[in-house]
Amino acid sequence: MSNHLDNPCFECGQCCQKLRVSFYHGEVLHDQSGELIGAVPPDLVTQITPHMVCMKGTETGKQGCIALHHDDQQGYRCTIYEQRPSPCREFNTLNDDGSINPLCDKLRKAVGLTSVRTN
Ligand code: SF4
Ligand code: SF4
Asked: Does 104 contact ligand 1 (Cβ within 6 A)?
């Protein structure tokens, strides 16, 4: 999910609600020999294997991420946008070549939203 003004994600939020958002535990903020490493707040993750965690709420892909906020004025927003983990940074409406991300498109259509514009 990305956050920019007039972003189609504001009306959608589906990737934050329908996918398990898992990543290497090194991305979680922790103290290593007096130095802070990682960025994702540790109270927002669930350990799923010895080396992997997921965002709380996304364990089964049936609930929303704990960091997802929605209100009528602003729509869906990530409350830890600057600290979000790599899967969230890598999942976008468009691929690098400008084509539509097919999984994003599928998630949008499943809730009756239209495809994002490619220009
Ligand atoms: S599914 Fe696509 S449009 Fe919806 S929030 Fe995720 S990236 Fe944005
Ligand atoms: S951390 Fe933010 S962008 Fe990632 S799933 Fe949660 S709400 Fe969505």
From this structure: yes
